[in-house]
Amino acid sequence: MGGRLFVISGPSGAGKGSIVEKLLRQGERIYFSVSATTRQKRPYETDGKEYYFVSRQDFLDRIERKRMLEWAEYEGQMYGTPADPVDEKLRAGFDVLLDIETKGMRQVKTLRPDAVTMFVYPPSFAELERRLRSRKTETEEKILGRLAKGRRECELAEEYDYIIINDDLDKAAAEAAAIMTAEKCRTAERIHILKEDETL
Ligand code: 5GP
């Protein structure tokens, strides 16, 4: 039995990263897909953990060789999901979690309509701005750009299967875990296990 594919999106600063970390720490069989990006590494990031930091040429080569499940340009940088690890992990029965933006989510939904999509909404835009500023890693222009983009992205939340409002990290992570559990208990997911197991 294969795993399920989950997508999590939301404006930068909404707290997706913290929710994902909590989900992974719970020790379920979840594989977090490490994206490739052409953007600069932030000081607290490690190559191969949050992202594979690659050159634009390397990124374009991967697209050319059809190695990306999806990709998008965001704030002038390229971001994409390497396809092979996703397929391998799904086949091995892991649930796979993609932290990607909305254009990528649409591509995934087209290719894999059974993917489950979650949107992390900030409690308010004032709070979103405060969180973006507290990172202190980006210029004023970049912060304002991300804030404007975040507002536009929030308008697309209704395209997602689920919305998680992150006003409290523990609650938001518990909601994401509950969504994932419920999706795995769907009749369509379970019925063939019951049919295959003669003891049931
Ligand atoms: P950041 O630069 O803040 O890490 O990420 C910027 C945006 O790119 C976030 O919305 C994040 O979800 C998105 N992103 C990260 N990896 C991917 C990817 O592989 N594909 C797509 N489409 N978006 C991504």
Q: How would you describe what is shown here?
A:
- The structure is a single chain.
- The protein is of the alpha/beta class and 200 residues long.
- It has a domain at 5-33 and 94-196: Rossmann fold (3-Layer(aba) Sandwich), CATH 3.40.50.
- Helix content is 44%, strand content 21%.
- It has eight helices and nine strands.
- It has helices at 16-25, 56-64, 83-91, 102-111, 125-134, 140-154, 169-184, 187-196; strands at residues 5-9, 30-32, 35-37, 51-53, 68-74, 77-82, 95-99, 116-121, 162-165.
- Strands 2-7-1-8-9 form a five-stranded parallel beta sheet, sandwiched between helices.
- β5 and β6 form a beta hairpin.
- α5 packs antiparallel against α6.
- The longest helix is centred in the C-terminal third of the chain and has 16 residues, at 169-184.
- It starts with a strand and ends with a helix.
- 30% of the residues are buried.
- It binds guanosine-5'-monophosphate.
- Guanosine-5'-monophosphate binds at residues 9, 12, 35, 39, 70-72, 74, 79-81, 99-101, 103-104.
**Helix and strand element order:** EHEEEHEEHEHEHHEHH
Query: How many β-strands, per DSSP?
Result: 9
User: Which percent bin holds the helix content?
Assistant: 40-55%
Strand order of the largest sheet: 2-7-1-8-9
Query: Which ligands, by name, code or SMILES, are bound?
Result: guanosine-5'-monophosphate
Average pLDDT metric: 93
Rg is 17 Å
